[in-house]
Amino acid sequence: MARAPAAAYMPAMVSTLYSRDILRLAAAIPHLGRLDAPQGSAERSSPVCGSRVIVDVVLDGTGRVAELHQDVRACALGQASAALMGTHAVGRTSGELADAGAALAAYLRGERDDPGNWPGLHVFSGARRATARHRSILLPFEAAAAAVEAAALVRVR
Prior knowledge:
Largest sheet: 3 strands, antiparallel
Strand order of the largest sheet: 1-2-3
CATH topology: Sufe protein. Chain: A
């Protein structure tokens, strides 16, 4: 009796979590690296999975993100989230980033039927049942909002 190769078996939960869309996003994170002279920086991490995201920002004259770079050490879900956050963060305020993160968190917890109006977050529908992965998905938005808040405080002083 021949056995199927180990690679042929992929549990349904894993294939749902790491969809083709998630993997494509994870491979296309924009604004990678650190800024030389950020106005604000923030790091967020997940002790459960070891994911870590650092976001550096520079704000424009109205307090919106003018430049953003990110150092992402995360699973494919965290990387995909960083890709979506980074793609649409320039021009946003800390409130918009925090609101996007809050809507996504509520969606992942099943408290709302949609992930909010930030583009592309519906890609995480398969992760709603994987509660241990929620933190990694939320890290980029939390770090970005905190970095913008830190930059705004520096500007006020």
